[in-house]
Amino acid sequence: MNQTGLDRWLNTIGAWTLALLWFLPLLYAVWTAVHPSAYATRFDLWAPLTFENFANAWAAAPFARYFLNSFLLVTFILIGQFILCTLAAYAFARFTFPGSTVLFALVLLQLLVMPDILIVENYKTMRALGLVDTIVAIGLPYIASGFGIFLLRQTFKTVPKELDEAARVEGAGPLLVLWRVYVPLAKPTYLAYGLVSVSHHWNNFLWPLIVTNSVETRPVTVGLSIFAAVDQGIDWSLINAATLMTSGPLLIAFLLFQRQFVQSFMRAGIR
Amino acid sequence: MNFIKALSTTVGAAALSVSMGSAAQAVDLQFFFPVAVGGKAADTIQELTDAYVASNPDVKIDAVYAGSYQDTITKTLTAVRGGTPPQLSVILSVDMFTLIEEDAIIPFDGLAKTDADKAWMTSFYPAFMDNSMTGGKTYGIPFQRSTPVLYWNKEAFAAAGLDPNIPPATWEEQVAFGKKLTKRDGNGNVTQWGVRIPSSGFPYWLFQGLTTQNDVSLANDAGNKTNFDDPAVVEALQYLVDLSTKHEVMQPGIIEWGATPKAFFEGQTAMMWTTTGNLTNVRTNAPFDFGVAMLPAHKRRGAPTGGGNFYIFKDSTDEQKAASFDFIRWITAPEQAAKWTIATGYVAPRPDAWETPAMKAYVADFPPALVARDQLEFAVAELSTYQNQRVTSILNDALEASITGAKAPAEALKEAQAQADRVLSEYR
Fold it and tell me: Which residue(s) pair with B105 in the sheet?
């Protein structure tokens, strides 16, 4: 009894310490963003509050349009990935066809290749398709996600065969079985994967910068980059205001859906 | 046919329309530019471009912000290899050899038709042209060019009993002044350092100031042999390391570039070495009286130049090349160069820009702007070799190893020289 009490106590302290460490940079970002830049490295509880940094950051680039672009981009990628990865994962999990192991190995190989290496090849492809400087071009190379296919295949494999067979006995075709049996059972995996995908593509910078040229197609990260001007020294207040602004939607979404996310990760992990 | 053309121009994005050609026979140009000095610079470039287009209705210019210098070269090379290069771009002057090796750019010489064109090409400061020409041809036109200078806090000088109007002129004075300026609290912690020479990211640039002052060059003009293990180079690095370890007038370890102006404003250092690109920033934000001086001399005065040049890309039509040439000639003309300098602090790259009324008024109001120009007389080209990225990163690693105390300067530089030899031997 005593042993577990101490244990729990230590656990709580450990969790709080880690949480605090994780939270410190965010705290600093909030502190600097709402104070004049003179207070960026000086702590004074009564320093004057200001929202000027946010106003300046917002004015420095067409952020309203960038937000819309980022939103369209992650939505497009997520929908595309869900459809493509689901179908591919289903094929790999439940059908045997000639060369399926080799094909699956090729899909896994994709996990080993750094996307940055493929920038020139991807660019050539997008140009051949006539898609340079479009939101579709930013997302297209990521739609056939090897990670997504792998994750969903593993999840589908854990679905009991009996459920599949029962549905077939009822007269359901393969696609209906997928839709009625597999997809609902893999919901936690979809949620977890969706979170990773959205945050990754919301934060992606180099590829969008390279493949787009106009305000109408560029995401928020490109807007954010104009604050990282080393030649002039970094204005922490401004850059933190801009960072909070651009990561705000993701933070809010995470806080809102936090319970679902944590649960989905736990369930996805247990299986 | 016309319908299809019009349709595809509308549907296709800006990049595509370049190759389509629209009904009005306008020349479309795509222009990539990096920004290294904050949001205002991008606005100024857009303003200048718009002004040009307004007076030249037959030319359309799509000015595309392309990130940092590093992002811009990546974006440009990707577009070149992908078959849709921009028509013109601002890229670091030291990337000239890289762009030539990629066969991406053409020299300006072939595009200069009239005597006035040719005269324009020789109207820039020679120090800036060192990095813009090779094999007798001009591949780059100086635009956003800079050079490092010394900024000092006059109030801190007065408080330390120094004449607030006299900056250190030599290496020895820099140490002597630094010792007076370094302040410690009761526990021996430093509250104000004497001097700050940033060393993160690209330490070779300011280090090249030290080697030039020690009268040695880091590489030959052909860009295929380095002198990293020259005793004078070792001596320069020893001086840099000694500032922290022996004389204790500079914060030890790697010093951040980005945080340097802030440290100066906050009084954490009484002097700093940094680029003239910071001039406008320091002028706006320093809460005290400050001075700007040339870097301290040793055997001679010296500093590297830096920053970006205009390049014209090969894979465009003759009309596009001619239009690019004309635009670059216009944007580097005295009035535009003056406007750009006043907005950013970059050094106007030609003498006659300093004679314009706007520039004269600016300089009269703010004499420190002249320091960088006057230093050009002593300036040398920024370190640039074949395989430039690899060679400079070899030197950067050696410098960082010495600054952090992992290796002695002589040892680190000897190893760097051996590595650089291996990379460059095939270009000899």
Answer: B313
